[in-house]
Amino acid sequence: MTQPQSQNQRERIVVQVDTDLKELVPGFLRNRQKDLRSLLAAVEQSDYATIEALGHTMKGDGGGYGFHGISDIGKSLEEAAENQNLQEVKKWVKQLSLYLESVEIVYK
Amino acid sequence: MSILIVDDSNENLLLLQSILQTGGYKDLLTAESATQAFKHLGIEDSGRNGTDVDLVLMDIQMPEINGIETCRRIKEVERLRDIPIIMVTAVAQREKLQLAFAAGAMDYINKPVNKIELRTRVGSALKLKQEMDKRKAREAELKKRTEELEQALKEVKVLRGFIPICASCKKIRNDRGYWQLVEAYIREHSEAEFSHGICPDCIKKFFPGVEPG
Question: Which terminal residue of chain B, N or C, has fewer Cβ atoms less than 10 Å from its own Cβ?
Fold first, then answer.
């Protein structure tokens, strides 16, 4: 399970991704940025159904591309939304934001 | 050979497509829902006008109609029954695998998908499908041949048993009780045809002045 980082912890998160997926990765990360915006909007409205659905999709998709951190965050978001725990949701949305800011990709 | 990938996540579709394409599988179809998959397969008209598909990769968790139900409905159609279906499942959904196998799935792959595992399992499933297709073609050919033979046997006329024949004029009493010329009787009961001529003895008897040729 990925642990939340404090704002001071802005270490680069290095992720190794298969070279075969090089063309797909920018689109994948752009879509996670979109997810982040959707999540922020959903948090504003306490829209747990949307948060749960987005979390579930992130959980399923992240690992396949090599972004296991995204899968972990997605899983945590899904669980927090299921429990209607807004504080937890906010924590993991923040964590997603940090992850996307810090991720560095190495193709192998 | 053609592979249909069914997954409500576009990201997963792209991922599986990419892994399979780089693995040499070029004939790929995608569907973001069960309904789209049914359209590809032509399930509404029992698969008669659908695209030929040799393998289906099916996500288990999908909105509306899930992967297990989709699998079950595909297997209900006789023309589509032999298409192998591999379920793509998250570890947390493993308890659903039993239902998937009961619905007709032949194998499963875990998410996150490992590209070597995916290509290997797809390769095995396609090989199996190819063997099944060959076997079905052989069976169809054998059935056709058997039917042809049965039909031919029906048409073969056989002469057997006791045939009542007149000791003097050599007419034969047929099944209807009439005395029939021997050539007419044989013609009726066999594929034989007669060409008429006169033997030397009969020439001497009926045409005494004519020398036999």
Answer: C
